[in-house]
From TrEMBL:
It comes from the Bacteria. Residues 54-512 form the Amidohydrolase domain. InterPro entries: Amidohydro_3, Metal-dep_hydrolase_composite, Metal_Hydrolase. This is Amidohydrolase family protein. Gene3D superfamilies: Metal-dependent hydrolases. Pfam families: Amidohydro_3. The keyword Protease does not apply. Residues 524-549 are annotated as: Disordered. Keywords: Hydrolase.
Length: 549
């Protein structure tokens, strides 16, 4: 055995192809050579002296590294605290560029301004395209990052702040940027149709942009139009139209609605011949930038300086208070009690730091203003950099969430936002919660299905290389799980608590979490898309690392 080999001793292998649960599996040793699994052999076959590093699994489950199919760690994945939060959940790869907004292509200015309260600043990207952004992650972080081409960023580069339909020439320019991003290694295209400028993109425009994605076997990933929940039908109908016109495989971001509606709408897509999947986090409440539900898109599409000038104008402010705010009760996931549904998670203005963790209603009461007035005040003081945890009118039970997540086309996606003093607990708890709630507590799915949910399906769906399985030749992104201890600890009241029960994680064969602590190693990389069989996949025009990822 090569001297550089690692051995994971006395583990029970479970992955998305294993079929049977761990109770039927025999303990084994897994031998790793370099970045890949060399062999899986009977326990005790390889002597300790033949390995440079031995981890005693103590009968724990060994799963392939978890894939967060919808993450917002684009700029913060270099932060040690964020890496620790991800790895303590077993997440070894995140898929960024979500909701149509990220740094590339371009200079990153649009994302840094509009999505500052979601993706955070990027310390290593100075401009360019997907190629340069992916390269910024190579050997610079403990986890891997895959990317989607963000359609909103593309539109902002070509159409500026326009709310008009794209012209034929503008569509051609956008198509070229999408094709370039895919050639550079992006795994697909993302849209955020409740955000700007995505809200102004027509179905025709989106279907055209999906054409080069279909041609290379990528995935069209969409934060649907219409606010989800009871408005999900309209969003799914648009996804169906886009997929049918372009031939693209589709993926619905954070698909939250009543369980029966999720199942019915997914069945409808399948019956229409649409290859569709979705991700969903195991919580009822959402999280987003405050400006999205409480200001008109026609305002937030403008540069921040212009929005701030408008909020400072007495006439415009009065118009918003008198005419606009009464209408936000119709936003699909809000209602008349919206001030108590929105909890302040991140406020960039230091003078409002006291309000973190309070609802807008309670914070407004402390200042002696109305909720609408307080909302405008805090947005102006923070230069719009505010995010909120959003309660929904009709909360779902754990059993409801289990019904959604047990769907065979479901994938794990936290929608985790790490920006904020009082963030949503999903950033630090989602993947441990999948295992604890769905497998251990409810028995809604078995361990093999759980491995498929949190790893294997996303690897296959997005072309993430030889990951997602524990077998010879696979990239050794591996997670040891103690089924008796695994649990999410983050709550809405204490959202910064780290998950428990996952103490040892390897990325590309390198220990990055040992005994629950970061090792300091940074073997993570930008994952370039690998062709996906059966979806019209073509060879990439740009070189990829030799491992295909």
């Amino acid at each position: 055995m090569p001297a550089a080999a690692h051995v994971l001793r006395d583990v029970i292998v479970v992955d998305g192809d294993s079929g049977a649960g761990p109770e039927l599996a025999e303990p084994v040793d897994v031998v790793i050579d370099g970045e890949r699994v060399l062999r899986v052999e009977p326990r005790g076959t390889t002597p300790d002296a033949a390995a440079t590093h031995v981890v005693d699994g103590l009968g724990r489950l060994l799963l392939p590294g978890f894939i967060d199919a919808h993450a917002h760690a684009d700029g913060l994945v270099f932060d040690a605290d964020v890496q620790l939060a991800l790895l303590r959940q077993g997440v070894t790869t995140v898929i960024g560029g979500q909701d149509g907004v990220s740094y590339a292509p371009g200079d990153g200015a649009y994302a840094s301004e509009y999505f500052a309260a979601i993706n955070g600043p990027h310390p290593r990207y100075a401009g360019g395209g997907i190629r340069e952004l992916l390269a910024s992650y190579d050997d610079a972080t403990a986890v891997n990052q895959a990317l989607l081409v963000p359609a909103g960023t593309v539109r902002s580069l070509v159409c500026g702040r326009s709310t008009d339909a794209a012209s034929p020439a503008e569509l051609d320019a956008m198509l070229a940027l999408v094709a370039e991003g895919l050639a550079d290694g992006a795994v697909g295209l993302s849209t955020g149709l409740d955000y700007v400028p995505g809200a102004f993109a027509s179905t025709h425009e989106l279907a055209r942009l999906a054409e080069p994605v279909a041609a290379v076997g990528g995935v069209y990933v969409s934060h649907m139009r219409g606010g989800y929940e009871s408005g999900s039908q309209a969003g799914i109908d648009e996804i169906r139209a886009i997929a049918q016109r372009s031939g693209v495989a589709a993926h619905v971001s954070h698909f939250h609605a009543e369980p029966h509606l999720v199942h019915e709408l997914m069945a409808g897509l399948s019956a229409s011949g649409v290859d569709a999947s979705f991700d969903a986090y195991p919580y009822t409440r959402g999280c987003s930038i405050l400006a999205m539900p409480v200001l008109p898109a026609s305002i937030t599409v403008r540069p921040t300086a212009e929005v701030l000038a408008l909020l400072a104008d007495a006439v415009e402010r009065a118009r918003l208070l008198d005419e606009w705010f009464p209408t936000i009760v119709d936003y699909p996931s809000l209602g008349p009690d919206w001030p108590e549904q929105l909890t302040l998670a991140h406020i960039a203005a230091p003078e409002f730091a006291w309000a973190h963790g309070l609802t807008i209603g309670k914070a407004a009461a402390r200042t002696g203003t109305t909720p609408a007035e307080f909302t405008l005040d805090v947005l102006a003081a923070s230069r719009l950099e505010v995010n909120v945890v959003m309660a929904v009118r009709y909360a779902r039970t754990d059993a409801d969430l289990a019904s959604i997540l047990a769907h065979p086309r479901a994938m794990g996606g936290s929608d985790g936002i790490f920006v904020g003093a009082h963030p949503h607990p999903r950033a630090r708890g989602s993947f441990a919660r999948y295992l604890r709630s769905l497998v251990v507590d409810q028995g809604a799915i078995g361990w093999a299905d759980a491995a498929a949910l949190v790893s294997t399906r996303a690897v296959d769906r997005f072309g993430l290389g030889d990951r997602g399985r524990v077998r010879p030749g696979a990239v050794a992104d591996l997670v040891l799980v103690d089924p008796a201890r695994v649990a999410d600890c983050a709550t809405y009241d204490a959202p910064l608590a780290l998950a428990e029960g996952i103490d040892d994680v390897l990325v590309a064969g390198v220990p990055v979490l040992a005994g629950g602590r970061l090792t300091g190693a940074t073997p993570g990389r930008g994952i370039r898309r690998s062709p996906v069989a059966g979806r019209g996949a073509q060879r990439l025009e740009t070189p990829r690392p030799t491992e295909g990822a």
